[in-house]
Write a structure and sequence with these properties.
This protein is α+β, with helices and mostly antiparallel strands. It is 28% helix and 39% strand. It has an 8-stranded antiparallel sheet. Helix 2 packs across helix 3, helix 2 packs across helix 5 and helix 3 crosses helix 5. The two termini are 21 Å apart.
Length: 164
């Protein structure tokens, strides 16, 4: 089995429902993945798509906590992002709401990341689902911001950081 076969990724977009679903089997334990989520230095290395860097201003991974991050694109443009955490189950699930963007005309959107062990201590399925407020917001995320490709890249980056 090649490394790519060991960590297949899946992206599905339902043209009717306002959601995005991205999954990846990672060669890392759930604890390694969770550690990469709760450490500001680690999350700065994996948050965002390829070519982006992130500066974490605040990270408090608990129900009611917040995640304030600035993403810098390859062209130098910056994107302020504020997320508020909802349901958090350490090592298994984290729910967060992106507070939206007046600049881009986007309403808040909700995301859920789940972590499920598929092979004891060796492989973990990580799934990221995003729910958008409207079909228009969904289209902006998927077409204008290429959210499906970005989410796939984010999970690849998470795996690289978690597996260290």
């Amino acid at each position: 089995m090649t490394a790519d076969e060991a960590r297949p990724a899946r992206v599905t977009n339902d043209p009717v429902a306002p959601d995005l679903d991205v999954s990846r089997v990672m060669i890392a334990s759930p604890q390694q993945i969770w550690s990469a989520w709760i450490d500001p230095a680690a999350i700065a290395r994996w948050w965002g798509p390829d070519g982006f860097t992130s500066t974490v201003r605040d990270l408090d991974v608990r129900e009611g906590g917040r995640f304030d991050v600035v993403m810098r694109g390859p062209d130098g443009s910056t994107f302020d992002n504020l997320y508020l955490f909802g349901d958090v189950e350490a090592g298994k699930r984290v729910t967060y709401v992106h507070q939206g963007s007046q600049e881009h005309g986007l309403a808040p959107s909700r995301s859920v990341m789940t972590i499920a062990e598929v092979e004891a201590g060796a492989r973990t399925l990580v799934t990221l689902r995003s729910f958008y407020a409207s079909e228009s917001d969904r289209r902006k995320h998927l077409v204008d911001f290429q959210a499906a490709a970005g989410a796939h890249q984010l999970l690849e980056r998470l795996e690289r950081v978690a597996a260290r």
